[in-house]
Fold:
Amino acid sequence: MSPDNSSVPVASCTMRTVAERLGVSVMTVSRALRNAPNVAPETRGRVLEEAQRLNFQPDPALGVLNAYRHQKRSRQSHEQIAFVTDFPQPNAWKRVTTFVRYYEGARRKAEQLGYRLEPFWLGDPELTARRSSQILRDRGVRGILVGPLSKGNSEIALEWNWFSAVALGRSLATPKLTTVSTNHFQALTTAWENLRARGYKRIGFSITQYEDERTQGGLRAAYLLSQTRHDGPILPLHLCAQFSAAEMAKWAQAHRPQVLMSSEQNHHDQLPAKLRARIGFVHLNIDPAAKGVGIDQGHDLVGEQAAALLHLKLLQRQTGVLMRRELFMVDGTWRDGSIVAPE
Structure:
């Protein structure tokens, strides 16, 4: 009896080899390996299983050529990428400058690479994970950018094995997608060091629990560590569940900061006039178009890098969730200006 060689790896396995073993077309094998949406899940599973059994290895040079051809076609058709959000209303995220900068940076880079970025709202309670995924697939979406979410430590349920995906910011906890974020720890540390160089010793910091969750405690950790690294008074941070002007004033009167760091302008603006006049302010998330001193967190660059990473995943046909989260960070930059001189 001759041995069954159906599971023996082929020395030079090609897509044609896989196709002949399964009795399907080469195009079907190609589409299945690229995770194209117009392939039945059962067929895709059979192709992937057979390709693995035969030790199929794609030709990198051919992959680059195919990617180039696909990119030329997509510049005409502009393949759609989904920008996923989950706020209570579809356009609520557009009210926050930070989130708009994420989107605009991602949109610019996506267009340069031949894609069209379109918002997709997951906040509809009638949409199940399966139904949302099917809608995206029916629209020809292979790539997803998870935009900023309504809460920190959020979970988004989709059929992730169908898509290539990258998350922006740190609000997504589950699944552990490849993530591009501002380096919040570096942002506050940079502000602290610049203030120390100007002679400030009593440096205060105010943050809401909402932002603390969204930044994974990075700003808070940097503040606490910075105080231990320098001589001088240690001021307790002002951490509030919800902002209260009265509580902010009470904290400022008790701890007498020379300068206040915060990502929220109103934490300084709503202090009593006498306190506000003698306490400087550094914005930890300053809008490049606004006046003032602080840190530009580079949210448009975060969006650009996320779109570029998603492009690579699409070229490499990398779908699903990796065993370990990949995290890429963009440093913030200090924007100088005039602050109240330290007393």
